[in-house]
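Lecture 7, part B: from sequences to assemblies.

Below are the input chains for today's worked example.
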Amino acid sequence: MADLKEARVPDIGHADVPVIEVLVKAGDRIEKEQSLITLESDKATMEVPAPFAGTVKEVKLKVGDEVSEGAVIAVIEVDDEAVAAPPSPAPGDGRGEVAQAPAAPAPAPAAPKPEDKPAPIAGQGVQPGNAPEGDAAPSARPPLDASIVMPGDAPYASPAIRAFARELGVDIQQVKGSGRGGRIQRDDVSAYVKHALASGARPVSGASASVGGLNLLPWPKVDFAKFGEIEEKPLTRIQKISGANLARNWAMIPHVTQHEDADITEMEAFRKKLGEENKDLKISPLVFQIKAVVAALKQFPQFNASLDESGEKLILKKYFHIGIAVDTPDGLVVPVIRDCDKKGLLDLARDLGEISKKAREKKLGPAEMSGGCFSISSLGGIGGTYFTPIVNAPEVAILGVSKSVTKPLWNGKEFAPRLVLPLSLSYDHRVIDGALAARFAAFLANQLGDIRRLLL
Ligand code: CAO
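Predicted structure of the full complex, as structure tokens:
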């Protein structure tokens, strides 16, 4: 015949710990070690597992109750075999988890005697990163040390929520908790995934998500209306997508920007001449920059490369597809001009005209924005001197171009007026050394400064 037993709070190392979740109700069928309640001390959250399988007859606690060792959580009609079976504690699999089952408590309704009290929960083996996956159980069970189980900087989340996050491939460190004391709830994980999908980012965990653990402060919450009149304007879809990509690239890539000047006096004279001969075509300075970049990529193949997902291999590309940042009313897009090494200045001018028009008319397809090897971001038509473009991952470098200005340059005998183009080369320092970047930038400036070489 089935037996009624009480599940009690084990030795948790603290007294008067608040119950923040009751995870079962009367009538629930529960498995041994299934979590019954969640407790939260000032240092830790911990779930108390069922000492035996059975059916919950009555729950004796509610959220907000403060409990100590021995408090009755629930009365459980215990399965026959569970009564006979010895407790088999199992280690948890993550931070903040307490997955060891307390030993069977004294039968109801007797008050707990010292020898009947639930066994303490072991706290070892659950520090960050060393949680065992198997089911080997420690024989001794020292009282729970909450600070070991739940280090202060680890996210608050129950084992069930951690399991849920793992199932979805979410790095729990990335999720902001909305529960009491920043506790992560199921809805927080779902909201994180929804946001990641909407923004084009991947809710990854594991090695490829090593950006996890930045431990950034939450975004400041400010009631701007308190300070004056405001208007709300939702971000466009493009802004959301490019914003998420830019944020990831800025956070994950160690950027360095190398500045250089190119004397483009001759190039500009040639460009004007070419424009007069081809009035139906806009010959942008950008087409010369694309040519120069292709020459530099051939000379320095490390720039025409991408790190693979593991970050341990460099993929060197034998093709030359160049991405061009285009400013549109809805935000920044980066269409790609393919096989730039096989195209002349006029072909490139035609392609550039087409992609910028398509970009501004929102007619670019995903295929036209993928496969780039290196990007150019030109603000030359607007102004400014130098800036720091953000590398367009998985590319390893990007060229920022600013507005050319006439400057006096020393030619060995005198100062002469020359048209100078400011270049800003940002690169991924994991892949490219500073010396190599300086050589690349100098080579680029030489190419732009020597029109004959560029046209070869
Ligand atoms: N120095 C001086 N003048 C320049 C120049 C430079 N480096 N680059 C272009 N110009 C001139 C052009 O020749 C053109 O002059 P004309 O009207 O006399 O022909 C004028 O500036 C305007 O050029 P443009 O910007 O319209 O065209 P473009 O071919 O040079 O560039 C494109 C095309 C698509 C790159 C550009 O329109 C664009 O969108 N740039 C912004 C890119 C951007 O936002 N980057 C930032 C990314 S990070 O947020």
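Note for the exam: The radius of gyration is 32 Å. Keep this in mind when comparing with the next example.
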